[in-house]
What does this fold into?
Amino acid sequence: MLVAIALFVVVMGAILLAVDKPKRIPNWVVTLGFAGPAVIALAFGLLYPALRTVYASFLNRNGTAVVGLDNYVRAFTEPAFQVVLRNTALWVLLVPTLATLTGLIYAVLVDRTRFEKAAKVLIFLPMAISLVGASIIWRFVYEVRGGSQQQTGLLNQLIVMFGGEPYQFLINSPWNTLFLLVVLIWIQAGFAMTILSAAIKAIPDDIVEAATLDGLSGIKMFRYITVPSIRPALVVVLTTIAMTTLKVFDIVRTMTGGQFNTSVVANEFYQQSFVRGDFGMGAALAVILFVIVIPIIVYNVRQLRLSEEIR
It folds into this structure.
């Protein structure tokens, strides 16, 4: 700690000295003094691990021999990994769409109502819960007991009350993946509602009044005025939730451990690398996840720039 403090004092002293005497020291030296440490830290903390992971993806299980594209071929051809990719695709397609749709409908329905603040607080509360905490809550909701035991899971208790048989929500594939999706939709709907509600309130009153005079109301007003006006916000919400969904790990790990055909790429990366010790395969899955995320980030940045230009 003392060494780190001393190093910080030396670096800051050098920077301040360069600033105080700009005539004697070139500007590039001052720039390097300010930006250099940050660039070095980013290169060491982000660039090097990324390059190391890409290199490891071409190695064998123990990282002792180069196997070329074998790990990637396995990832796209073996049935077990195909299930993982299928589940990941379902998460990315359904969670952003349903969470955004839920948040949008909720924002429109409660906008400028008498209980708007209370209603928004209720749907935003899950955002304050960690993914692990939310997963534990929903495990209790889905819990099932066999035989004649009294059901403690909320859903199974309701099923029994109406004369049905208890159901294994987290075991029966492929429906168990859909029940896991509900957890993230429940959390992200509050985020979508917050952003979209602000976008709806930002629609100019002149546009709404002109549309009303033209005879638009209800669904037509929503379709032709509200949705086009908040399109940039919709894109941001969809892409942001999609990036969060691609990295989902906590929910799957906490609720099923990736068993019963529920694993996704992030969980399988952890499973292969740290449980089974197949570092080459784990690195390949990490690279695949990284490649999938890049287009979404690029599209998100472009849309943000377009919205800035419009403003």
